[in-house]
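== Sequence, C-alpha cells ==
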Amino acid sequence: MLRYLNQRSSNIRQLSTSARLLDSYQTQASAPGQSKGGVNGGRQNSSIRKTAPLVRINNQFKTFKPITPSLRHVRVPLTDTANAGPFKPLTIAKRKNGGRNDTGRVVSRHIGGGHKRRLRTLDFDRMEGGVKTVVRIEYDPNRSAHIALLRSADTTANNDKSAWSYIVAPKNVKQGDQVQSFRTLSEHGINKLTAAASLGDFSGDVLSQAGEEETKATQNTQNSPSKVSSLDLGLLRMITVRPGNVLPLRLIPVGTLVHCIGLKIGGKGLLCRSAGSYGQVIALHSGPGSRYAQIRLQSGEVRLVLMECCATIGVVSNEHHHLKSLGKAGRSRWLGRRPSVRGVAMNTVDHPLGGGRGKSKGDKDPRSPWGLLSKGKRTRRPKDKHGNKYVVRQRVRVRGRK
C-alpha cells in the first residue's frame, strides 16, 4: 500500500511538472491578448496547444515544428495578405475540365482535382486616372504574384463596381498606400504637376486634378512626346515615380525597375507579371527620330519598346515564391496537380524509355510518351529568319548557344 501511494504521488508530480512546461510553452507561443488564466482560459490554451504547431519565423520564410511528418519540410514565404476572400463583383467562376476535351479524352496530363477557384479580373490597362487607395493585398490562387484591391478616392459608393479594381501588387506596397496611372498624361497635366512640385505641394488634390486632365487627353496628345525641360522633368519624376504608379517609358528615369510592360501604344501590360519579375530601363533614345527605349529583362535579353508604351514602377511582389516547399504530396493535389510517373518506371508499351532489366533507360534520348524528343526544342517562333527585330541582345542560353 505504501509503495502504491509513493508511486502515485511521483506520477502526480510528473504530471504537474509537464503541465507547467506546457503552460510555459503556450505562454511563449500564444499571441498577445489571449487568455492565460481561469477555467475557460485554461481549456482554450489546452485546445490551442493540441492544434497549433510551433511556428519558426525568420526574415523570409515561415516553418513549422514537425509534430507530423507533413509539416517537417513545409516552408512558406512570409506574406501580409488578407484572408477575407476576394471581392466577388470582380471575380468570375472557373470551370475545370480535368485536362479533358469535349469528347472526354485526356489531352493534358497531370491535371485534376484541387480546390475550387474563382478567376480574378485584373486591370492590366490602367486607363483610368485619379488617385486610388490600396484597400488590401490578397492571395490569388491563379497566379504566383499577389494582387492589390484598389478603390477610387473620388467616390463614396462602396457598391459601385467601377470604383474597385484589381492590379498586380508591387513589392513594398501595403494597405493604405495610394497609386495612380499617368499613362494618358497630357501637356496641361504635366504643367500642373511640375508647378505643384516647384511649390512643394504633393497633396492628393493636385494628383487627382492631374488625373482628371489625363482622362481628357486625346489620342493625338497621348501619342506625341511632350517637350518638357530637364528641371520640369526632374520635378515630375520626383512626384510620379513611385511603386504602383503607371507612366509612359519616356517619363521613367534610366535605371528604374518596372513591371507590367506594354508592347503597344495604348495596350495593356504584357511583360514581367509573375512573382518577383521586373525589367530595367537602361536607355532612352532622345535624339530626333528615336522612338524606342531599351529594357533589360531578367533573362539578360535587351529589347526595344516604344517610348509611348507604359509600365508600372517597381518589382512584382512575392519574390520568394520559387523557394517555397509544399512539404507533402497532398498539398500538390490541393493545387490541382495529379501525380507524374517517370518514363523509365513504365512498361515498354507505355513509354519509349520503359521496360528493360534494372532501372537503366539505355542509350536513348529523352522522349515524350509519343516518341517525340522532349529536350532542346526551340521556344521561339521560327517565323523571322533573323530573329525578333526588337531584340537588341539575345538572352544567354545553355552552353552559350544563340
